[in-house]
Amino acid sequence: MVGEVVMDRFRLLERVGSGGMGTVYRAFDERLQRQVAVKEITSSDPARVAREAQAAARLNHPGIVTLYELGSEGDRALLVSELVDGATLAELACCGDLSDREVAEFGADVCEALAHAHERGVIHRDVKPQNVIVRVDDGAGRRAKLMDFGIASLVGSPTLTATGEVVGTLAYMAPEQAAGTGSSEASDVYSLALTLYECWAGTNPVAGDTPAQTARQIGNHLPPLCDYRPDLPAHLAECLDACLDPEPELRPELDELDHHLDASIPRLDARCAVPAQEGREEPVSGERGALLRVGQLAALCAWGIAVMLLAVAAHLPGLALVLGALSVPAILVASWLPWAGIPVLAPLLGAASVGAAYPALAAWRGPLRERAILGALGWCWMLCGAAALGIGSAAGLMDAPPHDWTRSTGDATSGLLAPLFSPEALLGAAIFAGASLALGVILRARHIAVALLGAVLWAAGVDAALRVVGDGALAGVPVVAVAAAAIAVIMEFRRRGARPAVRRAPIPTTPGTAPASFGANAPH
User: Fold this and answer.
1) Alpha-carbon span 379 to 386, nearest angstrom
2) Domain residue spans in the chain?
3) Distance, CA of 161 to CA of 153 (rounded, Å)
């Protein structure tokens, strides 16, 4: 195919991807001397091919990829459309090149595009991050375009699918569409809201590991967006939640969603990247949340048995009490159970006089609550380790407990646990918790230079704060906190670099396709 001239004017230059109903080529229009995208349709249903062309031909909007021509070459149907330089929302979010404000701006662009389509009787039926392409910034700012009208429906036209047939992408499909009972403007509202939800939350709560798991989630009430992003404007999160109502008649209209997006733009951050899907954990809800709860229960039971054996069989109830008190909270909040053991490393860092590096470790993963709690627990472990084992410094906040504290719950409580609630000890715990949260925000920066500058300022703040706690011994050498934060930043950007890179220009695309780097991996 490459090198072939089709329809007597379009020379196929390069195969750029496939999806939906066909294969897409970058081509050159020898008559008008411009580059275009040519899609070779693989469907044997001429009515369906005509429907895509008719749906796209009704539309003329800057937020919609433009269809130029429908033709044929032998037994192949061909769609010729606009070539777009840019990357999809899926790519931008994955590579850390998408901010909270841009999600709202691009969402508003898609609202306008859908409004144009709905006014002309066209229902898209496949809105998803892979079908929203953001053109390269040409100096006028980045704008989003909606593509892929390959399964669009025309209001009032005879249906071309059998009763109950499901078309679209399952993980973004409105419940009524998945049930095969029909699509409407409300179906597009649902899919767009879920697309924006995923961008802001870093996860799609409907998408499962298999199509069957995804299908079981469709129609369920989803976790509120504020569970993931309590920092977003409340009215915006509530509007998206309402747009995801399983009942289409209860969803807000498209213009209401557009209004909330526009109103939120000035209040949203334009510097930090949205959470990447690989680095964001789901809240405890749905099937995956149930599995996490089962794992937590199993871990708690196993740990409880171990502590009981330690207390009864080994006659060390004091040690059992301290280990249980410092470990159970970590198990309860850990989104990945092995991560619950991270606070145990704090005494080792304290023994090496690099305790100020611990908040950088706690900031590495997990939602905000988890980072804060693990940060505070690391402080408690560090003080107890220093006081009980003589490793590192307790910053003058705790004295050594009685010699046989391991055999007495009273001595363990008065000698180790009670001092953790002194005002200065609580201040230290708050510093570690706050430092873990703050560095987690810095790691979301879109540019490594900004993140490294933030890491230096973070380290200076941690060092200054620790110097006013107790005798200041836990502050250590300032370069330790700087190095720990810088390593965290470098590791985060290396992790981002391991994902598919954003192709800034040119990315030929056309309705119904996406470059193979992301189209092939779209959710079920």
Assistant:
1) 11
2) 5-81, 86-282, 342-497
3) 10
Q: Is the pTM of this model over 0.70?
A: no
Fold of 5-81: Phosphorylase Kinase; domain 1 (3.30.200)
Phi, psi of 163 (to 5 degrees): -60, 130
Among residues 97, 100, 109, 126, the one annotated as catalytic is: 126
3-state secondary structure 362-430: HCCCCCHHHHHHHHHHHHHHHHHHHHHHCCCCCCCCCCCCCCCHHHCHHHHHHHHHHHHHCHHHHHHHH
User: Which residues fall within 8 angstroms of residue 471, CB to CB, at 6 or more apart?
Assistant: 393, 395, 396
Count of Cβ atoms closer than 10 Å to residue 253 Cβ: 14
Q: What is the pLDDT of residues 119-145, one digit of tens each?
A: 988 898 889 998 899 987 666 678 899
Q: By three-state DSSP, how is residue 323 classified?
A: helix
Quick: pLDDT tens for 160-204: 343 344 445 789 999 999 888 888 999 999 999 999 999 999 899
CATH of 86-282, one of 1.20.120.420, 3.40.50.300, 1.10.1040.10, 1.10.510.10: 1.10.510.10
Residue 126 appears among annotated catalytic residues: yes
Strand (E) or helix (H) holding 329: helix 317-333
